[in-house]
Design goal:
38% of the residues lie in helices and 26% in strands. The longest helix is centred in the middle third of the chain and has 14 residues, at 122-135. By secondary structure, the protein is of the alpha/beta class. It has helices spanning 43-51, 73-79, 96-107, 115-118, 122-135, 150-163, 180-193, 206-212, 230-235, 237-242, and strands at 3-14, 17-28, 32-36, 58-63, 66-67, 81-84, 168-172, 198-202, 215-220, 223-228. A six-stranded mixed sheet has the order 6-7-8-3-9-10, sandwiched between helices. A four-stranded antiparallel sheet has the order 2-1-4-5, with helices on one face.
Amino acid sequence: MSALLQINALVKTFGGVAATDKVDLAVTKGELHAIIGPNGAGKTTLISQLSGTLIPDSGTILLNGKNITKKPAYTRARLGIARSYQITSLVMEMTVRQNVALAVQSKEGHAFRFIRAADKIAHLQNAALEALRDVGLDVRADDLTTELSHGEHRLLEIAIALATGAELLLLDEPMAGLGPEESAKMVTFLKELKGTRTILLIEHDMDAVFALADRISVLVYGRIIATGTPTEIRADASVRHAYLGEG
């Protein structure tokens, strides 16, 4: 299968320390590819470079063969990349539907000063409701966002990403802060989403990673030390020693 995302020799340093150290990675279309590693491994730095909030010092990032290495975040969003965050970034005073409609509006290039008019544009509202239906939040569409649970906030972030029509979803610890019941719901949802979008997942919940991922890459001290199927990663001695704490 062809690579939707191709990363070559990606380097980002902070104060002489390489947060990403010549990272090579290929993510094929339609797969759920997980990035795991200990705290401080460089996972968030990597995903920030992919989303455009950080620009690499060197190396290349290709999306569908197009070089996006120096492109700003808003350009990458329009090219089909959407990111969810560890810390939710929703407008709590707006309704659930309004949050998603705003994302659709932004994707279409409308100025933010027209936000109030968005409520009156039927196709924006319909697109928002469809995305909310995909994540099971359509029944909460007209509730204030502040009334949602933490897990529902995470689902809302994914609905916003889906509403933009993103081809590549960068999910940054979607299980962070969720209780067992909400985590189970998130895993079920992501299983259903698999194959409909290409997903790059950063996650500390190893049960979720091994249940969801088609392939896993292990990042340690800014370097990918192994990439393979869940079965291959479990059997890799270097991974067990460096990250899983075995051996």
